[in-house]
Specification:
Blueprint: E1 4-12, E2 17-24, E3 33-35, E4 53-60, E5 65-66, E6 68-72, E7 75-78, E8 86-93, E9 102-104, E10 108-111, H1 113-116, E11 119-120, E12 128-132, E13 144-146, E14 161-165, H2 168-171, E15 176-179, E16 181-188, E17 191-198, H3 206-224, E18 236-243, E19 248-251, E20 255-261, H4 275-289, H5 316-333, H6 339-354, H7 364-369, H8 382-385, H9 391-408, H10 414-426, H11 442-450, H12 456-463, H13 470-474, E21 479-485, H14 494-500, E22 507-510, E23 515-520, H15 525-528, E24 536-540, E25 543-544, H16 550-554, E26 562-569, E27 572-579, E28 585-592, H17 594-610
Parallel strand pairs: 1-12, 17-18, 18-20
Antiparallel strand pairs: 1-2, 2-8, 3-7, 3-11, 4-5, 4-8, 6-7, 9-10, 10-15, 12-14, 13-15, 16-17, 19-20, 21-28, 22-23, 23-24, 24-25, 24-26, 26-27
Length: 611
């Protein structure tokens, strides 16, 4: 079978149009069918990428038009071409500044293969060659190419030219950045890792970033391969688009596409660890951990992916949740952040889960299965209806890790579970052994790896809706879990903060000139008074409310006070009496209680946090 050949060029950057040419030397003699994926792995929502194809035509090698018709939302059928080559040429509109699709303007280009490369039916296993071409004009003379796709002979790294893939799955699993970008390279256990930062930036300390990522990557490689320290890739690329306001990441087999606030990147001459930079490192750590956990260790439902429709699994709590546990844990194990920083991050996650009543209605297994219709399509009632398999999944991992460590006196841990998953399912995944983890295998795999039967803890954590017994699980480590109202004073105890903290409506507000309720929590003061998401608050006790002054107005009252609220619902004015709630608990504080268990507890924490 001849390779499937693609050529892609930023044809009209100002109009945000890529032009793609697809050439088949041996099309189906009965007529070739073409499809474009409807979703991209790692982002579990049908996104209908075919809607961005603006024009499409087909012709033979002599330039004569070949009839081609669209047969459904993502499929085209070409007429037979007798004994010759079939060529498709089409334009793709690219104006999605995210990590999921494609973006193009006169400053930068970016694309995922799932957005731009049509798949000829029956050629999923055929080799692919893609010619990435430079846009025309002197303004683009210094543009470069960043991708983890292997270069074909004659193409220089970071240069325009031909790149190759063993099959279509590999082709679309390597995003591409085009344009001007900062570049640095470091080696993690001997494997080159590139850092690419596109977008306008100021004095980024890329050397510091490289040093921090090197430590994080080496810690993760050693977790999965403690003896050989062998990375699962020959080269890896962190590609980041820096913007004024954005956050996100998407994993790929040898790279990750990231988007961040430019202010989150480290600044030359400022060695402090800012909250934004810590968040960015956590994002990098998360996507890098996926190199093992979900790109190679997969649920059986993803082995292989079917990109034409939803692929359901109840195991995203394992693949996304466990990754969300290890992303910050690897920051502290590598020395990138302090133990205190890690406790703060963990406390924020605990608060995020416990703040939303959806955790009492949906299990993480159900959340995983419903990702396609609930998690990725959230509405104003989502905090009251769903639980995040990312956030609660990370706490499930924490609970399992602490339980295993305590029951085995630290001879075993969740690390052993991840290594067993890697050895059995991941290490040879792209070498012909494409097996995935079964929906009901995980509990037995944990017992096999550690000798610990988690029993009711596993059932409750994965399939139940009761809160995790974190206080009891922390007890052998002498860690106290203390609620921290979000607007209480620093250093206060929970009781003092609750008494002295500002009252609340129990609702999330969209800021701006108007004070719009974005979400109203179950059982809150706002809900009891009859307020709903979408209502626009205009006055509290006769004083005007905006999106920025609500907290200031409420700070004049004590919890339990009754206030008169004027609000518009659509075009109807409503007047309600609201009995204010106490301050909301937005995060929890983890405190090491040294006097409680002394040296044994301190050693337990060290083994947990140092690996």
């Amino acid at each position: 079978m001849n390779p499937t050949r693609y050529a892609i060029v930023p044809k009209h950057p100002a109009a945000h149009l890529f032009e793609v040419t697809l050439t088949l030397a041996d099309p189906d003699p009965a007529g070739q069918r073409f499809t474009l994926p409807t979703w991209i792995p790692g982002s579990y929502m049908v996104r209908e990428f075919a809607r961005n194809i603006v024009t499409l035509s087909a012709f033979n090698e002599a330039g004569r038009t070949v009839k081609i018709e669209k047969t459904d939302k993502q499929t085209w059928q070409a007429a037979p071409v007798k004994g010759g080559t079939l060529i498709l040429r089409y334009e793709v509109y690219a104006w999605d500044m995210s990590v999921r699709a494609a973006h193009l303007d006169d400053t930068v280009g970016f694309f995922n293969g799932t957005s731009v490369f049509l798949l000829p039916a029956g050629r999923e296993q055929a080799a692919c060659v893609v010619d990435i071409q430079k846009p025309a004009g002197a303004a683009y003379a210094d543009w470069r190419v960043a991708t983890a796709l292997p270069e074909a002979r004659g193409t220089k790294r970071y240069g325009f030219g031909e790149y190759r893939a063993q099959d279509y799955d590999e082709l679309v699993d390597h995003p591409v950045t085009l344009g001007r970008f900062e570049l640095a390279t470091f080696k993690a256990h001997g494997v080159p890792h590139d850092i690419v930062i596109a977008g306008r930036t100021v004095r980024v300390d890329i050397d510091r970033l490289a040093a921090d990522l090197k430590r994080i990557c080496e810690a993760q490689i050693a977790l999965f391969e403690p003896r050989t320290k062998k990375a699962p890739v020959e080269r890896y690329v962190f590609m980041t688009q820096a913007v004024s306001d954005g956050y996100g990441g998407l994993e790929h087999r040898a790279s990750t596409a990231l988007i961040c606030n430019r202010s989150d990147l480290p600044v030359q001459g400022r060695p402090e660890m800012s909250e934004g930079y810590r968040t960015y490192l956590g994002l990098c750590s998360h996507e890098y951990f996926h190199t093992w956990n979900v790109k190679r260790i997969k649920p059986a439902a993803f082995a292989p992916y079917d990109l034409s429709r939803e692929n359901y699994t109840s195991l995203l709590w394992l693949f996304e949740g466990f990754t969300s546990y290890y992303d910050d844990l690897m920051l502290v194990r590598s020395g990138a952040i302090s133990e205190a920083d890690y406790y703060a991050l963990l406390g924020k996650t605990v608060g995020g889960v416990l703040r939303c009543s959806g955790r009492l209605k949906q299990s993480v297994a159900e959340s995983s299965f419903d990702a396609w219709v609930k998690y990725y399509r959230q509405d104003e009632n989502s905090p009251n209806a769903i639980v995040s398999y990312y956030q609660k999944g990370s706490l499930v991992a924490l609970a399992f890790d602490l339980a295993i460590r305590a029951r085995t006196e630290h001879r075993k841990s969740l690390d052993d579970v991840m290594r067993l998953l890697w050895q059995r399912y991941g290490r040879q995944f792209y070498n012909g052994k494409m097996a995935g983890v079964g929906e009901d295998e995980v509990e037995a795999l944990i017992a096999e790896a550690t000798g610990v039967e988690l029993g009711p803890l596993f059932s409750d954590a994965v399939h139940g809706t009761r809160d995790l017994p974190l206080e009891a699980l922390f007890e052998p480590f002498a860690i106290a879990l203390e609620p921290q109202p979000g607007n209480g004073k620093n250093g206060q105890g929970a009781a003092d903060a609750k008494r002295d903290g500002k009252p609340s409506l129990g609702a999330r507000v969209r800021g701006g000139a108007e004070c719009v309720l974005a979400a109203v929590h179950d059982g809150s003061a706002a809900q009891k008074a009859g307020l709903s998401a979408g209502d626009v608050l205009i006055a509290v006790d006769g004083l005007r409310v905006t999106g920025s002054n609500l907290d200031t107005l409420l700070s004049r009252y004590l919890p339990g006070a009754a206030v008169e609220v004027h609000a518009f619902r659509r075009d109807e004015l409503r007047v309600v009496r609201v009995k204010l709630d106490g301050p909301e608990v937005t995060r929890y504080k983890l405190i090491a209680v040294e006097a409680k268990r002394g040296a044994p507890a301190r050693r337990a924490r060290e083994r947990w946090l140092q690996g």
